[in-house]
């Protein structure tokens, strides 16, 4: 193949422009991204080699090497992983395949400051090399292809890139960064080593650099020929908890999730019993941009005995916890397990249940910290409610974690706290759903409750109506919508009031008859109500019917 020039996909060009023109706040992350790609490539090789050991060729030990050359002003990151064919280099380094990334790019505003922030949150993978380099050359050969089918990809990071065939004996990939003039501080052993220790210590294969020694004659540090391992080189989750620092847990989370913000909480356990596995689960501090995408897969990576098996293992977490990030490493699953197989496996069911229990327990713990819990709830509270309809076994635990606005409280409240405030004789937890909280607060349905000083929970999340239909009671107390049927205030309504209401109804009989007749296509029934104090009339729905709010939603959805 002679040299060819290709254009970057429009989104890539946009991204590159941003990377190279925005003042990137943390240039160090280029190394984290490139080392993480090298490690991914080794994981992929190990996985493919399960069925084809020949792919290891004559180099079974997988590793990543980081080297620099002061004179040439380059940094080179080399792995002996899966490598890329020419076509793969064109596809993977010239386009953004992942829909998530494409969505992300479409969110870019053109405003450097806010975009830089967004990028910081997201991580730009391979293209982050252009933060420090004004030219990147990638030389690669895919495992299993002949030496003559190597490829050289090269780009200056503007509109296009070049691709040509090369001879390459070693399998795998070298990424050669030609540093920008103002980024030469990275041509330094200590600096690179520190960055690797900081961001990539948890990578499960050795990351090696050539040692340096002081040369007294030359009066400078010189690079020695030996390679030494600079990271701990064992999978973070396989280490005992006491050997992992908070900073290491946090860095691991950041690589795992492409999130620049630290997680709110994590939990790391070795689960023993009939199904044995290690789980390391994180609660992020903010929602991903595609949280509501129904195809969004779980954030769990599956390993079997430290061999990477798959990303986004949706069978390992129920959908309402799809935002949890983490790793599960199983000792029991076969290495060649497929997604289909996962769905059927009893071990997987046990792991999913164990993960669910663990996350709910973490949230229960987190709820003791008001501020952190508020952060969590703002991001994921609405998704959590889906669990009421999805996970019957854990419904009570989920209900305990929910928080609602209330007519009598300035802060949101838990159902348990509402119960503790209930009036003597009050038999139900009252709630009202509406399109917005403001609409709920102004609803005439609340008049009587206000007058009697009875607290009503106010709900305005889209899922509330649906989710609450699964929660008929909380710890023995029924939940009752104030917009449904006749409100029975039980003992809170005194006898005299009840009598007066009945007499009034009697006296209004002829009027009611007339109203029923003239509204017969529009209303099921017309009643005298004791629920209003100031307003003359209001609409309610019969018990068991869709509420007005749900009816409105269904109508919008064309049903
Ligand atoms: P991501 O790693 O999230 O997929 P990147 O931008 O970091 O995104 O990398 C894009 C793609 O380029 C990878 O998915 C992979 O297919 C390919 N790639 C990058 N670096 C390597 C490498 N060292 N070896 C093999 N393939 C690589
Ligand atoms: Mg990557």
TrEMBL record:
Pfam family example for this protein? HATPase_c_3
Q: Map out region (A) in residue numbers.
A: 1-339
- Quote the cellular component terms of the Gene Ontology held in the record: cytoplasm
For this UniProt record, the keywords arranged alphabetically read as follows: ATP-binding, Chaperone, Cytoplasm, Nucleotide-binding, Stress response
* Location in or out of the cell: Cytoplasm
Where does this protein chiefly localize? cytoplasm
Q: Recall the GO molecular function terms of this protein's record.
A: ATP binding; ATP hydrolysis activity; ATP-dependent protein folding chaperone; unfolded protein binding
Histidine kinase/HSP90-like ATPase domain segment(s): 26-183
Annotated binding of ATP, by residue: 33, 37, 79, 84, 98-100, 121-126, 173, 339
Q: Give the similarity note.
A: Belongs to the heat shock protein 90 family.
Subunit-structure text: Homodimer.
Read off the PANTHER family from this record: HEAT SHOCK PROTEIN 90 FAMILY MEMBER
The task this protein performs is described as: Molecular chaperone. Has ATPase activity.
User: Per its record, how is this protein called by name?
Assistant: Chaperone protein HtpG
Source organism of the structure: Hydrogenophaga crocea
* Source species taxonomy: Bacteria, Pseudomonadati, Pseudomonadota, Betaproteobacteria, Burkholderiales
